[in-house]
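Session log. Operator J.P. requested a structure for one protein chain; no other inputs attached. Running the standard single-chain path with token output.
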Amino acid sequence: MSGLQLKASHFTALFRDDNTVLDSVKFMFAFMAINYIVTLPFNIYQTFELDREFGFSKMTPKLYIQDQLKSIAMFIILGVAIIALLSWIIINVPNWWIFGFPVPIWGELSLINCDISDFNLRPIFNTIYPPKRWGALQSSIEEDDGRSLG
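Structure written below.
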């Protein structure tokens, strides 16, 4: 078998009915689709009611739909590829967990780095002042918290 035929056979093997990689992708895709449908009303409420009430969003329905369609397209393109790759690694690489073990450690180190830079390093380089005009948001926060922000 030539190299091109070998690659073609590996590619077509991904799309057989008995393939566990494709089954994994289908399962995760179905799970994410159900999650998207369930959380969509809450997302719409947050975008069009809560954020608009405090002046954080000027989103229009047309822009919201375009944004959602772009997000879905990016998930289909990138998410399916990443899920397929991870499924293939889990199925075909022995002791795959050894390689995946450092990932949570890297994630925790990046979170610690964000905390350090936010609270310790940023004030050294930038002077941080509260905004001069907070309007209704400032008074609402002060009422809830009981202390002055300015």
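Operator note: The chain has a mean pLDDT of 76.
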